[in-house]
Design brief:
- It comes from Roseibium aggregatum.
- This is Flagellar assembly protein FliX.
- One of its GO terms (biological process) is bacterial-type flagellum organization.
- Keywords: Cell projection, Cilium, Flagellum.
- It contains 3 helices and no strands.
- Helix content is about 55%, strand content about 0%.
- It is elongated.
- The protein has a domain of about 80 residues.
Length: about 140
Protein backbone atom coordinates (compact mmCIF):
# COMPACT_ATOMS: atom_id res chain seq x y z
CA UNK A 1 0.00 0.00 0.00
CA UNK A 2 1.32 3.34 -1.00
CA UNK A 3 0.54 6.48 0.95
CA UNK A 4 0.35 9.64 -1.07
CA UNK A 5 -0.18 13.15 0.09
CA UNK A 6 1.12 14.63 3.27
CA UNK A 7 -1.86 16.47 4.59
CA UNK A 8 -1.50 17.79 8.15
CA UNK A 9 -3.94 16.47 10.70
CA UNK A 10 -6.44 19.11 11.66
CA UNK A 11 -6.90 20.11 15.26
CA UNK A 12 -3.26 19.73 16.27
CA UNK A 13 -1.45 22.91 17.19
CA UNK A 14 2.01 23.39 15.83
CA UNK A 15 5.00 25.10 17.37
CA UNK A 16 3.69 28.52 16.70
CA UNK A 17 0.58 28.07 18.82
CA UNK A 18 0.61 30.06 22.01
CA UNK A 19 -0.58 28.63 25.28
CA UNK A 20 -3.11 30.62 27.20
CA UNK A 21 -1.96 31.58 30.66
CA UNK A 22 -4.39 32.46 33.40
CA UNK A 23 -3.91 36.04 34.40
CA UNK A 24 -5.44 35.80 37.85
CA UNK A 25 -2.49 33.74 39.24
CA UNK A 26 -4.57 31.07 41.00
CA UNK A 27 -2.71 27.90 41.73
CA UNK A 28 -3.95 24.46 42.60
CA UNK A 29 -4.92 24.03 46.23
CA UNK A 30 -6.52 20.83 47.52
CA UNK A 31 -9.88 21.03 49.24
CA UNK A 32 -9.25 19.79 52.76
CA UNK A 33 -12.90 19.78 53.71
CA UNK A 34 -12.74 22.26 56.53
CA UNK A 35 -10.44 22.00 59.53
CA UNK A 36 -7.57 19.56 59.62
CA UNK A 37 -7.36 17.64 62.89
CA UNK A 38 -4.04 16.52 64.31
CA UNK A 39 -3.54 12.78 64.61
CA UNK A 40 -3.00 11.37 68.07
CA UNK A 41 -0.04 9.23 69.08
CA UNK A 42 -0.20 5.56 68.24
CA UNK A 43 -1.22 3.16 70.96
CA UNK A 44 1.37 0.97 72.64
CA UNK A 45 -0.35 -2.20 71.39
CA UNK A 46 0.65 -1.48 67.81
CA UNK A 47 4.33 -1.95 68.59
CA UNK A 48 3.62 -5.24 70.34
CA UNK A 49 1.70 -6.49 67.32
CA UNK A 50 4.64 -5.53 65.14
CA UNK A 51 7.02 -7.47 67.38
CA UNK A 52 4.74 -10.53 67.27
CA UNK A 53 4.75 -10.37 63.49
CA UNK A 54 8.54 -10.23 63.40
CA UNK A 55 8.85 -13.20 65.75
CA UNK A 56 6.35 -15.16 63.67
CA UNK A 57 8.34 -14.42 60.52
CA UNK A 58 11.55 -15.59 62.18
CA UNK A 59 9.84 -18.83 63.20
CA UNK A 60 8.62 -19.44 59.65
CA UNK A 61 12.14 -18.90 58.29
CA UNK A 62 13.57 -21.27 60.90
CA UNK A 63 11.07 -23.97 59.94
CA UNK A 64 11.86 -23.54 56.26
CA UNK A 65 15.59 -23.67 56.99
CA UNK A 66 15.22 -26.85 59.08
CA UNK A 67 13.18 -28.46 56.34
CA UNK A 68 15.78 -27.48 53.76
CA UNK A 69 18.60 -28.95 55.88
CA UNK A 70 16.66 -32.18 56.44
CA UNK A 71 15.92 -32.47 52.72
CA UNK A 72 19.58 -31.94 51.88
CA UNK A 73 20.52 -34.61 54.44
CA UNK A 74 18.11 -37.07 52.79
CA UNK A 75 19.53 -36.32 49.35
CA UNK A 76 23.08 -36.83 50.61
CA UNK A 77 22.13 -40.21 52.09
CA UNK A 78 20.51 -41.29 48.84
CA UNK A 79 23.52 -40.14 46.80
CA UNK A 80 25.92 -42.07 49.02
CA UNK A 81 23.67 -45.15 48.84
CA UNK A 82 23.78 -44.87 45.05
CA UNK A 83 27.58 -44.77 45.18
CA UNK A 84 27.64 -47.88 47.39
CA UNK A 85 25.36 -49.62 44.89
CA UNK A 86 27.72 -48.70 42.05
CA UNK A 87 30.64 -50.06 44.11
CA UNK A 88 28.74 -53.32 44.70
CA UNK A 89 28.12 -53.67 40.98
CA UNK A 90 31.82 -53.08 40.33
CA UNK A 91 32.71 -55.83 42.81
CA UNK A 92 34.41 -53.83 45.55
CA UNK A 93 32.84 -51.54 48.17
CA UNK A 94 35.00 -48.67 49.33
CA UNK A 95 35.60 -48.62 53.09
CA UNK A 96 35.70 -44.82 53.02
CA UNK A 97 32.28 -44.70 51.43
CA UNK A 98 30.86 -47.02 54.09
CA UNK A 99 32.37 -44.86 56.83
CA UNK A 100 30.84 -41.79 55.24
CA UNK A 101 27.46 -43.48 55.07
CA UNK A 102 27.68 -44.55 58.72
CA UNK A 103 28.58 -41.00 59.78
CA UNK A 104 25.78 -39.50 57.70
CA UNK A 105 23.12 -41.81 59.13
CA UNK A 106 24.19 -40.96 62.67
CA UNK A 107 23.51 -37.25 62.07
CA UNK A 108 19.77 -37.12 62.59
CA UNK A 109 18.12 -34.04 61.04
CA UNK A 110 14.62 -33.15 62.21
CA UNK A 111 12.65 -30.89 59.89
CA UNK A 112 9.61 -30.24 62.06
CA UNK A 113 7.40 -31.45 59.20
CA UNK A 114 5.97 -34.93 59.94
CA UNK A 115 5.85 -35.92 56.25
CA UNK A 116 9.49 -34.97 55.61
CA UNK A 117 10.55 -36.69 58.85
CA UNK A 118 8.68 -39.84 57.78
CA UNK A 119 10.54 -39.96 54.46
CA UNK A 120 13.86 -39.35 56.24
CA UNK A 121 13.16 -42.24 58.62
CA UNK A 122 12.53 -44.54 55.65
CA UNK A 123 15.77 -43.46 53.97
CA UNK A 124 17.73 -43.93 57.19
CA UNK A 125 16.20 -47.37 57.70
CA UNK A 126 17.31 -48.37 54.20
CA UNK A 127 20.83 -47.07 54.91
CA UNK A 128 20.97 -49.04 58.18
CA UNK A 129 19.83 -52.22 56.39
CA UNK A 130 22.53 -51.83 53.73
CA UNK A 131 25.18 -51.15 56.36
CA UNK A 132 24.04 -54.19 58.35
CA UNK A 133 24.27 -56.37 55.23
CA UNK A 134 27.85 -55.24 54.80
CA UNK A 135 28.64 -55.75 58.49
CA UNK A 136 29.14 -52.04 59.24
CA UNK A 137 26.06 -51.07 61.27
CA UNK A 138 25.89 -51.69 64.99
CA UNK A 139 22.89 -50.33 66.86
Amino acid sequence: MRITGNKPISGVQGRGAKKSVSSNGDQFAPDLGGEVSQSSQTAGGASIQGMDALLALQEVDDRAERRSRATKHGHNLLDTLESVRADLLAGHVSEDRLELLARQVSKRQSSGDPEVDSVLEEIELRVKVELAKLGRFQD
